[in-house]
Design brief:
Radius of gyration: 14 Å
Order of helices and strands: HHHHH
Number of strands: 0
Strand content: under 5%
Number of helices: 5
Shape: globular
């Protein structure tokens, strides 16, 4: 039987890989913000990441990582306050927070 925690960490890695694919050739904020299709795809995968993190929190509230609650909250913001999504915030998350999340997901999905 598959360990549910590993499955969710694997889902996070898959979403991160998809984000990398969506961002191929998108090397600046201006390019990102000018492409509604890229923004939609990236935000959809961020929602997936947030949902996987929420499930991890439910499974084992004592084994949450430092940014887990912020990731879950951002997922809720993307879903419920879609009309006020700030592209600069999403871009900052892409650049600053996804690489450390990838490292953690790689460690925990094994």
């Amino acid at each position: 039987m598959t360990d549910p925690k590993r499955k969710y960490w694997s889902d996070i890695l898959i979403a991160l890989d998809a984000i990398d694919l969506h961002l191929k050739g998108v090397d600046s904020f201006d390019r990102y913000s000018a492409s509604p299709m890229v923004k939609d795809a990236v935000e959809r995968r961020l929602i997936t990441i947030g949902e996987a993190v929420a499930k991890l929190i439910q499974l084992d509230p004592d084994d949450v990582f430092e940014e887990a609650e912020r990731i879950r909250a951002f997922r809720n913001r993307l879903v419920h306050s879609y009309d006020s999504t700030d592209d600069t915030l999403v871009w900052a998350i892409i650049r600053n927070h996804l690489p450390p999340l990838r490292k953690l997901a790689t460690e925990r999905s094994v």
